Every structure is written in structure tokens, then in C-alpha cells.
Amino acid sequence: MSSENKSNIKSEKESSQESPKASPLDQEIAKLKSHDFRVKNNAIKTLGKMKDAKAREKLFEIAKSEHFDGRLRVSAIDSLGRGSKGNELFRLLQALAGDPKQSREVRRTCITQLTRFKDPKSIRIFVSALDDEYRFIRFWAVRGLIKIQDIKATVGLVKALGDEDEEIRKEVSAHLERIGEEAVPALIKAFNNPEANKFLKYGVMGLLKRIPSQKSFEALVKALEDENDRVVTIAIRGLGKSNNPDAIRPLIHLYKTNERKRRLIEDALFRIGQENPKILVIMLAALLLEEDQSLPAMAMSLFAKIPQSYIQLGDIASDKELNEDFRAKIKKVMEQL
């Protein structure tokens, strides 16, 4: 056999003994060295679908490494999140979410993924994120707190009532209203905080108006003295809605001192009078002796709106111990009704 033929045979044997083809996993990992973003991003997504420990390790490596483009790290974190939850992933998400050096999208992605765990250990991270400048970080922090059944999460949510974003405030308010009376102490405490902004104050007042409880009622009465005009308005409407006769006296007192709110106060008193006509008529009758003629006028206006007022006034006038001047004023009102 010629030397040329021997060479050809050797070459064929070497060719048949080539190294085996790289595995699908190794092929995807190799693509991460590409200069094309889409190639690398698709490789990360493919790794996320592989049920292989080595693939998951690579995703963790990408998520942690600042040498990778931020968008690729986000893709890796999302891919990890679509897999099984575990302590390693939880610790990574917490570490990155709480690190201000990370990009806002990396932190937002981590907070989004943390909401899936519903773990009270994330409350601190979520509450801290409520101060972030990035709206979507705050939004997902709120979502995370909503999913956690813990009073500490509720306290954190109350803070978000002061968020500058209306959509966030609405979502928080709706959830706190569903919680109901359990949220009232946290709401009142937040309202009384000297650093509470106007959004938080309005939000708290609106919720106290819709959550019936003795503590809510007491807070609404106290708010009648607030220096914020809108807070006072919300409190008046809330007391009117409460139908609690104990609100009559503080509302009448405010009527005497706040001329700008008189129409609103009269409406609130009328609502209370529909459920408690006797008590309201008795307290309004006392206003007939006031020198400020706006007070008897208000009483007369309400008497005319309350069907039972004529009978109630008649009962008062029939009291033998009643001052004659007072009796005469009541009878005059009855004649006008």
C-alpha cells in the first residue's frame, strides 16, 4: 500500500474519532459570549426553561454579575423567577432589591419577584421601597405588601396613602378598606404624624369615613379642629354618614365658629336627623335662644325637612318646667311649620 493511501486511511480514522458535539446546555452557554444582544438574551431565556442545575447556576451568575448588561440581568432574574422558588433565590432577590447601587430595573424586577413569595421577611424591603423615586418600584412594593397577611404590612401600606401617584393611592385605599377596622389604629397614628403629607391625611380621612367604628368616629370628630380645610370637609361628611347622634353637638359647635362650612354642616345634621330625629330636634330647639340669628334660622331650616319635628317640638313645649320665653319661641316655630 502506498504511503498516500495509508495517509488517507489515517485521516478517515481521525475524522471518525472527532470530539462529540457540544450539549444543548453548553451551546446556550457558549452563546453568552456573542456580541449580539438578542442572541445572549434568547440564550438566557432558553437556560431558564432547562431543568438542569448547571443552567440555573449560570442564571444566578448572570443575575449577580455587573459585567452583564442590566437588561440581560433582568432577563436572568425573570427566568429564575419562573422556576421553582427557593431560599437561594429569595436571598438573592432581597440582596439586590435592597442595594441602592443596583439599577432601578434590576431592583424593580427583584421586588416584583419577591411578591410571589408572600414572605413577611420582605416587609422591610417593601416599606423601604415606598420611598423610591421610581414609580414602578413603589407600585410593586405596594403589591408585595398587599399579598402579605401581617399587621406590619398593613402599617407599611398606610404609608403609601401619601404617595404622589394617584393609582398607587387608590390601590392602597381599596385594600385598606377591605381590611376594615383592623387598619384603623394604623390609619389614625399615620394621620397624627407631624410629617404626614396632604395626600396621606386625605386618604386616612376618606377611609375613616368608610370604615365604621368608634375609633373612626372619634378621629373624625377630632379632625373638625384640623387646620387643613379639606380635612375638615371630609370629616364633616364622614360624621354625617355615620348617623351617630354624638356628632350633633360638635357639628353645631363648628357651625357657630366656621361660617364657610355651614351649608355642609347642615347637610350632615340632616342625615343624622333622618335616623335620630328626636335627639336632633331637642338639640336644635336650644338654638332658638341664640342671639346669632343664623343659628335659629338653621334650626328652622332643618325642622322643615324633618317630618317628625312638629311632634317632637310639641313634646318639648308641653314640658311644664319649660321657660315660658322658650315655650313661646317653640310654639312660634310650630306655627310656621
Automatic annotation (TrEMBL):
<dbReference type="InterPro" id="IPR011989">
    <property type="entry name" value="ARM-like"/>
</dbReference>
<dbReference type="InterPro" id="IPR004155">
    <property type="entry name" value="PBS_lyase_HEAT"/>
</dbReference>
<protein>
    <recommendedName>
        <fullName>HEAT repeat domain-containing protein</fullName>
    </recommendedName>
</protein>
<feature type="compositionally biased region" description="Basic and acidic residues">
    <location>
        <begin position="7"/>
        <end position="16"/>
    </location>
</feature>
<dbReference type="Pfam" id="PF13646">
    <property type="entry name" value="HEAT_2"/>
</dbReference>
<dbReference type="InterPro" id="IPR016024">
    <property type="entry name" value="ARM-type_fold"/>
</dbReference>
<feature type="region of interest" description="Disordered">
    <location>
        <begin position="1"/>
        <end position="30"/>
    </location>
</feature>
